[in-house]
Design a protein that fits this description.
homodimer; three-stranded antiparallel beta sheet; two-stranded antiparallel sheet; DNA-binding; 47% helix; alpha+beta; globular
DNA sequence: GCGACCCTTCGGCACCCGGCGAAGGATCTC
DNA sequence: GAGATCCTTCGCCGGGTGCCGAAGGGTCGC
């Protein structure tokens, strides 16, 4: 297949990248970044292609291991294969050039703003909201960024007080930094990030807006963030960078 | 360019992935993963294409921000744009499917084995050697993996004793985990990882083999690893998994 | 200045790949 | 069973892209 001289059996980078190198497949993956499962036709509509076209792309993505599927009756549900995959796509998205075209239509612009304010990023929170929470946790000494990200002793206690249940110790790192592609600053990911997000849904701090990844803070949530993290409404909305950290980019 | 319905101005994942989706460009990037600068014709030869073809690929990679160039006289030197870029490529490589073809020729097989034993991964050490060092540091309590990777107090002292100078605090994380694509286990990266690697070269612990990324441990190095980390020759060669950690994959 | 060397530009070629619609299983509803 | 819905397979088309070799410009060494 490849006539390159020094095929020493290394990783086939091009094969993996090729899966994401198509606009349609990329938008499918970005749509699935909310961590939920969608049907083939929903994804086709989101990507703006015919169902037949979507089928082919989905086959490729599944075969390549980026997506997993589950068939239920006449429906085919697709989701990202796992946290690894989600993280890979987020990393790429954070490093990718941004489309310059400002949203043309009014509804598109408002959808965009909703996404910027708050959204799920696979299984944790991103956007202004996600970054604000991360920064507040840093300010309060719950996270320590001096060498990588770490949950401090105080952080462990805080989780307990807030009623957030830390996930069981699997291979997955408890705390991880994920670069936010709207804020260009890191937010909290990993097992704890997921737990915080799950709790925020369960406790009614946030709700989904529409059918996409966007989430909005409820009144309850605003109060809770104030009580538990000392966050004011202004800080949440503005993405106040006090307490931000010098990158936690990848290398 | 893209007629997709919901262009809300997000990241152009496909553009970035497209850069790496070509076998030739991918092999160029992998070759540059040793962190050094190479000329255009050297890269053309490594990738097995005509110089004119390489020129076009290099233009794309530079325009896309993955590579930076430096012209000196009639030479054009190319290197990866930075640690971010290197980390991105390493992540992809670790997750990409491996080519199944075993090396056909004898020299290719021996080159491959040399790479497996030890190599630079951008600016730090990888392969059996890199993983062995990382594991030994973990066993000795110099690194702590309970929440992400952290250099412990003892680790800081150890660096001083070993004469390894920690890098100045820039935005770059001091300690980071990088998934090794031959060992399938994490090795030490980040600022400290780079410092260890630099010191290993300076102190004559390791030397380059041939012109590529492969490195070999010297007699001095073997002694030094024994003295500083208690590593035996057998442990270094075998990739003894004692002390290994459950992944530090991405998510 | 002359040749050697490194790189680039430019056609031309071949191929791959993504798009669609039509037709056809498969499944649920009535 | 009839009809609607979801998904898939297939053939076809068009455009994009990677490759090369030939020719040319820049730079270095003698």
């Amino acid at each position: 297949m490849n006539r390159h001289a020094e095929d020493t059996g290394g990783p086939d980078l091009a094969a993996l990248a090729g899966l994401l190198a198509d606009g349609t497949r990329a938008s499918i993956c970005l749509a699935l970044l909310d961590g939920r499962a969608w049907t083939a036709s929903e994804l086709a509509r989101m990507a703006g292609v015919a169902p037949s076209t979507a089928t082919e792309h989905l086959n490729l993505l599944v075969a390549g291991g980026l997506l997993t599927q589950e068939r239920q009756g006449r429906h085919r549900y697709l989701r990202l294969a796992g946290p690894d995959t989600a993280a890979l796509i987020e990393n790429l998205a954070a490093m990718a050039p941004h489309r310059t075209t400002p949203p043309r239509s009014l509804p598109a612009a408002s959808r965009r703003r909703a996404l910027e304010r708050g959204r799920t990023c696979y299984d944790h929170l991103a956007g202004t909201l996600g970054v604000a929470i991360t920064d507040a946790m840093t300010r309060r000494g719950l996270l320590d960024w001096t060498h990588g990200v770490v949950l401090t002793e105080r952080g462990t206690g805080w989780l307990r007080e807030a009623g957030i249940e830390p996930p069981p110790a699997t291979g997955r790192p408890l705390v991880r930094s994920c670069l936010d592609w709207t804020e260009r600053r890191p937010h909290l990911a990993g097992g704890i990030g997921a737990a915080v997000c799950r709790h925020a849904f369960d406790a009614g701090w946030i709700t989904r807006i529409g059918t996409g990844r966007a989430v909005a803070l409820t009144g309850t949530g605003e109060q809770a963030l104030h009580d538990h993290l000392g966050l004011t409404a202004g800080q949440i909305r503005s993405g106040d960078p006090a307490g931000s950290e010098l990158s936690a980019r990848s290398a």
